[in-house]
Design brief:
With about 280 residues, the chain is an alpha+beta fold. Helix content is about 20%, strand content about 40%.
Length: about 280
Amino acid sequence: MKLSIRHETHYEYSAPLQYALQHLCLTPQANAHQAVEAWHVSAPGHLHAQRDGWGNLAHSWSMVRQRDARQVYRGSVTAHGVVRTAPSAELADEPAAPHPALYLRSTALTAADAALADLGRAHLAGRAAVADALLALADAVAAHVVYRAGATHVGTTAAEALALGAGVCQDQAHVFIAACRAAGLPARYVSGYFHSPSAHQLASHAWADVCIDPAARRWLAIDVTHRCAMDERHVRLAVGPDYAACAPVRGVRVGGGEETLRVRVLIDVDPPGQA
């Protein structure tokens, strides 16, 4: 599938903004699942490209304004391009990528309590058929953490989402990852996009990779929200131990007062009308 993507993040502040620094994980990379035919990222300041500790191609930019500035700041970060995807759900990391064992460590967002550990053991004990077991776990997570926009926030932990019984794709991915790690399987968070023909305007999506062969660094990608393995509808942006490590846009600021944030993601099949 050939997908045309546009991701816009618009900011507006109620008071003068004195300083801003942002880190962007908005650039997809070529792999066995996808080929990047064109991609461009723009921001209010000069972009500095770097490879982060998880192997993602990231950018940073900063802005400093005079302290006597009177103007209320408005700005936007935009990423757009064309990616061709394949239906493959498996990936193999490059030798230079972080070792899969690093993704056994819990984080503040993915620490497993007794309920998460029980969930992982119930579905992954033995792991005779890894793919089937992981999809069964995805079904269980989706049933326990019903998709409900606005029920959680970016700081909600996996344990909190499971106890609440609701959340969004980020929460479902965190619960799934925590359960996998508790069962001894390395798992990592994936940020990206999902093409849904019925929804022209979308938000970013999240799913998970599980290492099914650490020696060969082979991963199987599972989308808990859609209860399926990764397919041609998915575009990968970045990976990390949790959302905080590979959020599409994150940063700090000084000044600005109240922030108004608008995000728009548009995904179309290219050429239109084909899939």
